[in-house]
Amino acid sequence: MSIPTWRLIEDGPMDGRLNMAIDRAILTACERGQAPATLRLYGWDKPTLSIGYSQNELRDVDRAQCEKRNIPIVRRFTGGRALLHHFEFTYSLVAPIPHPRFPGNLAGAFGAVSKAVISSLERAGISKPEMVGMSKRTPGISRHRSPACFSASNHWEITVKGKKLAGSAQRRLSGAFLQHGSILMDWEPELAHSLFRYSSESEKEQGLKTLISRTLTLKEALPVKPDWGELANCFTNGFQNTFPGNWKTETLNSLEMKLMKGYLKEN
Are the CB atoms for 27 and 34 separated by under 8 Å? Predict the structure, then answer.
C-alpha cells in the first residue's frame, strides 16, 4: 500500500469570503484529482457570520442587526447552522473519495475526523473530550430548531461535560469531501445571539439561555487560553498522528488560485 500524501496549509486570520472561497477551491481541485488531501488551519480577521449551505437566511438571520454591527454574512459550502466566527480556531479537511484513511460514507468519515479533533484537543490540555454518539444527540429548543450552530450537539461533534466545544459540518461530492470544524477560543454570546431571528420574544430569551448552557470555549475549559499558534501546533500534531502519511506544508496550487478567484466573483 502506498503512503498517503497530505498537505498542510496554515493561513491564520483571514477575510470570511476568502476563507470560504479557498476551502471550496481545494475541494473542487481535489475532486478533479489535482490536489492532495489537505488540512487547512485558519482564523477570521473580523467577526463574520457564516450560514450553512442550505440554511434559510431570511428565516434565521437578522440581516439588519448584522449591518448595524458591521458583521458580514458568508455562506459555507458545508451544511449546518449559523455561527458567528470571532475568537475562533477553524480547521477544514479535504480528502478524495475513496481514501485509505476514511470509510466511504459520511458517518465513517465524520467519525474518523472527529477522532483527530479529539487527539488535537487533548494535546491542547482538554480533559476527556467526547464524540457525540447516535443516542446522545442534544435537541434544539423545544418545538423549534434553533438557527445557532452551538445550541445543539449533533452526531460526531465534540463535547466536554455535556457542552459543545467543537462544531462541524461536512459536504460530499462524488470524488471528494470537505469537513469544516470550529473551536471557540472565547466568545460574546449576546452578540452572536443578537444576529439570529426567532418567532417570539420568549423563544428568543430561551434561545440565549440554551446557547449559553450548551456551549463551551477554550477559555472556560483551560486554566490558560492557548493562542492561535499553539492551537495550530496541537491540531497539526493531532491530525498527523491520527492520519499517518507523507505530510508537507505547502500553499495553494495554480488551479486552486484560479478557482478561488472565480468563487470570490460569484459572491
Answer: no
